[in-house]
Design brief:
alpha+beta; 5-stranded antiparallel beta sheet; 25% strand; 2 domains; elongated; minor pseudopilin epsh fold
């Protein structure tokens, strides 16, 4: 009888983990965490880098559509969806004889910024835009404003600048890019100098 109770106690005591087993499991968990966390950081960085490239492409399309087309173009931001899109001032498909209306451009994709990335600051011709819903339209005479967008994420902070006369945005993290200021050759007395 005593032997049976001793066996039960031994089985009960054997159910616990030894210190060595706990240390081995903790070491294995530390190794797994050390391999997974950097990959998650890289994935977030890649998402943000992709979003910056998509915003660059959207600004490039904005400049192209303004220079090549006859319609007014607008760059629109919706903070509730954290998305940028291109809009066109065009005929209303529901009422072709009526006035023109702003509608989302069918030829360009909406840029959805990843979680954790926001447009921290947006300027049009040096005027800071509010944090809520905004639209930067081209001017009716065919010119367009100077646009600056500051994108801030967990891994990336990039400022994009689209000059009024440029077709490609300039990145703040590009060491080769230089911002050229327009020159008034008439004011400098060099309007008729040979190039």
């Amino acid at each position: 009888m005593q032997r049976a109770s001793c066996g039960r106690r031994f089985r009960f005591l054997r159910r616990a983990f030894s210190l060595v087993e706990v240390i081995v499991v903790c070491a294995l968990l530390a190794i797994v965490v050390a391999t997974i966390v950097p990959r998650m950081v890289v994935v977030q960085s890649q998402r943000e880098a992709k979003a910056v490239l998509e915003v660059e492409d959207l600004l490039r399309m904005y400049a192209f559509r303004n220079s090549a087309g006859t319609q007014q173009v607008g760059l629109s931001y919706n903070p509730s969806e954290n998305a940028l899109s291109l809009w066109i001032f065009d005929l209303n498909p529901e009422d072709p004889d009526g006035p023109r209306v702003w509608q989302e451009d069918r030829l360009s994709d909406v840029v959805q910024l990843p979680d954790g990335m926001v447009i921290a600051r947006a300027e049009a011709d040096g005027i800071e835009l509010s944090d809520d819903l905004w639209n930067i339209p081209t001017h009716p005479d065919g010119s367009r404003p100077r646009i600056q967008l500051d994108l801030v994420g967990a891994e990336q902070q990039v400022s994009l600048l689209l000059e009024t006369f440029g077709g490609t945005p300039i990145r703040s993290d590009d060491p080769i890019a230089t911002i050229r200021a327009p020159r008034d050759l008439d004011a400098e007395g060099a309007a008729f100098d040979p190039w």
